[in-house]
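User: I'm writing a short methods note and want a consistent example. For Thiolase, I'll paste the sequence; you return only the structure tokens, no commentary, since I'll be parsing the reply automatically.
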Amino acid sequence: MKMNAYVAGVGMVPFGKHLDKTLKGLAGQAIQLALNDAGLEKGQLQAAWMGNAAAGVVTGQEMIRGEVVLRNMGIGRIPVVNVENACASSSTAFQQAAAMVSAGYYDIVLVCGYEKLFHEDKARSLGAFSSAVDVEDPDGAVNVVKKLAEAAGEPFDAEGAGTTRSVFMDIYAMMARKHMKRYGSTARHFAMVAAKNSRHGALNSRAQFREEMTVEQVLAARSIIDPLTLPMCSPIGDGAAAVILVSERKARQLGLRNPVRVAASALVSGWDFEHADDSVGALAAGQAYEAAGIGPQDLSCVELHDASAPSELMAYEYLGLCLPGAGAELLESGATALGGRIPVNTSGGLLRKGHPVGASGCAQIVELTEQLQDRAGARQVQGARVGLAHNGGGAIGLDAAATVVTLLVREDLR
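Assistant:
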């Protein structure tokens, strides 16, 4: 979908383990930071889209999640739309809000993604992920892994899936094994992704993990499920990120400096594949590229859904950063690292920045906005003009249940 909305301000709290903070407290802090960044007051907001995935499971807050957050800040009267779409919750909220602004319904709106996944009862945290599949399937999440294992020609042992580890790590492991068999990628390549993102995350003060790791350290870490070691798996976390979107008219009135425009955003759902090369991510990316009149060759930087290290390498291919099967070669060339041709996950990605699922999509927009406005500090991509955000969520069949791809461009309103 072609868009014409502008990012007026962004805010994000550091991701991590925040057992001492409330869900609405984290969200409120991010929202206030975004308002301050935009130079706007909360009373100027005309509507809000609030993205959260797991509060019902982890904290027990259901139904009025966004209203609870905003009322705590003294914000009422305005329309509040609560968005839940697995790990793509806040990117979906962003896509819907940008569409409404582009259509002319609002001039100033809020988008916020927020989540608390840490809990004293670890079963609650794992339960949040186990619900992001078709639970009416008799075998639930395990059946998704079985289908992927069959497609990869791999045996599957269900022990530990959804109990000692997130079942999604089993899902990513089977996808990785299929890629390894088909294209020759290796565990070392996946370790290279994790090490690269650790270098990026070390430069990000809001990242959950700030330690640099070598490829050897990643490979030697505790095994989760072959071929994934712990640093190849995104961690659970708590956090919040917020974005203020405005219309072009309001952007001109505000005199935005280095304005960032939402050029396109595509939200798609999965389907029953007929061809082996189909993917939800490729469909979303293709729609976004076409709507914006932008191609992969135009991108300056990318924030993509590296819920596992293999996920990043495979996304290189279906986002069009390289040809199918050439992800490992692109990685080895250094192109996706800071200083390379197309830096990917300069924030540290989900692997190092963290993955409080409802907040992850908005956090990608925060990173890209700061990159396009030359305020990313030590991780700045020089001359960044076009950014792509890719965020997936849930699993049905052989792929994500939902995916959002958004294109942001820096442009001069004068």
